[in-house]
């Protein structure tokens, strides 16, 4: 092309290669400011994410064994009955997390928000957040004592009212409810603050209007508060799902997945593949663990895309 | 100011007071249990584990527990302070650049940061460990610090970027006219104006690092380096049923954050609820 239109010329002078290089050169100090951030991200986030995918095609023990096996790790994990058990357990835990633990912080935020006395609001808000400041491990270890078969508080209470004692965390039937119960009464923490912020963001005209119209508090909750908190509730649901799919901290501390896998979750299954279960050293297979990681990543990705989709269509409906 | 509601408040709000009282009692029951048992010696625990027993064996239990967890607590403190300072410094720099400048590649870089929100930590746990092994950092403080800094900054950059964009641009322009460099504007204008948001983020980072258990468990087995959570876990699984000492250790491990939080309640809650932090 020999004849250039003026528009093309303008385009070239604005975004052409030379001027791009010049613009990059002029911004060199800015890149320098970003460099520490991105260097660390590259080494400890981007690269591991890629490495997880790469390693999942190998049998790799970190030392001598390093063999390409194609999709075999995935085949093994997806057909492993233990992995299936962990998925079923996850479903039970997740189903529970989406009931009372989801509702609790909303009700707690409502209770605080509805107090007429401002200083009482601040006091109860404080009381509800304090447990979130106690290290999670400390709370788990207190529950470890409570469930202890000999001298544990739960059995002492049962004995004192004449009921037979239990083995709690060592009981295949009781272990899941016992684990869920460690977060009783499911009200406090950061989520309560998020909802409280949402409630405080409701314009006072809306609430005044509802009072003038004679709406009861319950009516107001369902017709005003709940719809306006919908955004936060959905966020809670998405983050709960993501957290539950990959979380295994509480189970690792209290049961290590036992008894006989009754409380095993996929995250802990991954951990065991890589670092061994507490009882046995086991064979370390970082490749298999990486494959589990990729599977969980895909599950999280799909679920959050679906939930995000629901969120969007809902918002459109709300705007109409 | 009294915490007792007036009769009028009670008549209209009794349901809420009742709910809050019940919820708080249940929440604090395990904490009270811990405090109570932390005063007992083995004999008292064997006879009366739940009731109040005298005399209190505070000095024995807490003295022994303090000896066990002092070093680990200092380790955690060192790791947390270093990680948080580094993370806040480099992520505020990045947020400053993203918030206030236009340069080639900005959108691509920012998009690649956004994409990281979709990468779950469970995916990177094992390879991150392998990288630490390869860098020969196993059993060093850096095995904790560097990944903490890298991981915490994503969220911090997002929040600070939003905040920096809301700062008045006129004064920064004026400073630039007067010949202040970009770094100068960042250091002596943007950072001081952002103190509340930085404090909130630092406190959130501290909560997460103080609580972290799995990562130190994987990367440290040198007893001199182990963190507070590792020490507590070992204390709990050491057996011997020294419940008094164990509970005293749990109490001591909870105190620093509690004190810090009580001091900073107001700015923390304001930071959390002001709308600056949106996930």
Could you list some keywords that capture this structure?
heterodimer, A: 320 residues, mainly alpha, MetI-like fold, two-stranded antiparallel sheet, 16 helices, 72% helix, disordered N terminus, B: 279 residues, 12 helices, globular
List the helices and strands and how they pair.
The complex is a heterodimer of chains A (320) and B (279).
Chain A: H1 6-15, H2 17-26, H3 28-55, E1 58-60, E2 66-68, H4 72-79, H5 81-97, H6 100-114, H7 118-133, H8 136-146, H9 153-160, H10 175-181, H11 190-200, H12 204-212, H13 217-246, H14 249-254, H15 266-275, H16 286-319
Helix pairs in contact in A: 1-2, 3-16, 4-16, 5-13, 6-7, 6-11, 11-13, 13-16, 15-16
Chain B: H1 7-37, H2 42-47, H3 58-100, H4 106-116, H5 121-134, H6 142-165, H7 169-177, H8 182-193, H9 195-211, H10 214-219, H11 228-237, H12 243-273
Helix pairs in contact in B: 3-6, 3-9, 3-11, 3-12, 6-9, 9-12, 11-12
């Amino acid at each position: 092309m020999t004849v250039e239109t003026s528009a093309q010329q303008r385009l070239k002078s604005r975004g052409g290669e030379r001027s791009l290089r010049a613009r990059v050169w002029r911004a060199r100090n800015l890149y320098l400011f970003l460099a520490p951030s991105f260097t660390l991200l590259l080494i400890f986030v981007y690269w591991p994410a890629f490495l997880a995918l790469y390693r999942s095609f190998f049998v790799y023990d970190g030392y001598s064994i390093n063999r390409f096996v194609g999709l075999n790790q995935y085949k093994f994990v997806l057909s492993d009955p233990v992995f299936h058990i962990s998925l079923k357990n996850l479903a039970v835990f997740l189903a529970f997390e989406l009931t009372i633990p989801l509702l609790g912080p909303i009700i707690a935020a409502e209770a605080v928000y509805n107090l007429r006395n401002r200083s009482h609001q601040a006091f109860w808000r404080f009381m509800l957040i304090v447990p979130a400041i106690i290290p999670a491990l400390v709370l788990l270890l207190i529950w470890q004592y409570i469930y202890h078969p000999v001298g544990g508080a739960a059995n002492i209470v049962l004995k004192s009212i004449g009921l037979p004692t239990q083995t709690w965390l060592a009981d295949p039937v009781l272990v899941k409810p016992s684990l869920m119960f460690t977060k009783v009464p499911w009200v406090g923490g950061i989520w309560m603050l998020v909802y409280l912020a949402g409630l405080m963001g409701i314009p006072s005209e809306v609430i005044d209007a509802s009072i003038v119209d004679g709406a009861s508090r319950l009516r107001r909750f369902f017709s005003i508060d709940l719809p306006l908190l919908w955004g936060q509730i959905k966020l809670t649901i998405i983050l709960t799902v993501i957290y539950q799919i990959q979380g295994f901290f509480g189970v690792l501390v209290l049961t290590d997945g036992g008894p006989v896998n009754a409380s095993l979750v996929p995250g802990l299954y991954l951990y065991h593949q890589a670092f061994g279960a507490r009882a046995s050293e086991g064979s370390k297979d970082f490749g298999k663990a990486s494959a589990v990681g990729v599977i969980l990543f895909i599950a999280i990705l799909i679920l959050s895309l679906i939930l995000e989709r629901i969120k969007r269509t809902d918002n459109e409906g709300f705007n109409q | 100011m009294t915490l007792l509601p007036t009769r009028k408040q009670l008549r209209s709000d009794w349901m809420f007071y009742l709910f809050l009282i019940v919820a708080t009692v249940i929440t604090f029951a395990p904490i009270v249990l811990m405090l109570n048992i932390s005063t007992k010696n083995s004999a008292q625990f064997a006879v009366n584990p739940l009731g109040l027993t005298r005399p209190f064996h505070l000095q024995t239990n807490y003295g022994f527990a303090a000896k066990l967890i002092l070093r680990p607590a200092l380790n955690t403190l060192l790791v947390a302070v270093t990680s948080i300072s580094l993370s806040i410094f480099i992520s505020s720099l990045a947020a400053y650049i993203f918030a206030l400048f236009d340069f080639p590649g900005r959108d691509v870089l920012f998009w690649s940061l956004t994409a990281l929100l979709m990468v779950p930590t469970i995916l990177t746990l094992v390879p991150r460990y392998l990288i630490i092994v390869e860098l020969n950092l196993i059993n060093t403080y850096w095995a904790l610090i560097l990944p903490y800094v890298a991981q915490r900054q994503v969220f911090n950059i997002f929040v600070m970027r939003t905040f920096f964009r809301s700062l008045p641009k006129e004064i920064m322009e004026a400073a630039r006219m007067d010949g202040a460099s970009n770094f100068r504007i960042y250091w002596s204008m943007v950072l001081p104006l952002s103190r509340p948001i930085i404090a909130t983020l630092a406190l959130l980072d501290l909560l997460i690092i103080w609580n972290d258990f799995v990562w130190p468990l994987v990367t440290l087995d040198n007893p001199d380096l182990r963190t507070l959570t590792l020490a507590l876990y070992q204390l709990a699984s050491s057996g011997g049923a020294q419940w008094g000492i164990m509970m005293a250790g749990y109490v001591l491990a909870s105190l620093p954050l509690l004190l810090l939080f009580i001091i900073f309640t107001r700015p923390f809650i304001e930071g959390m609820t002001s709308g600056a932090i949106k996930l």
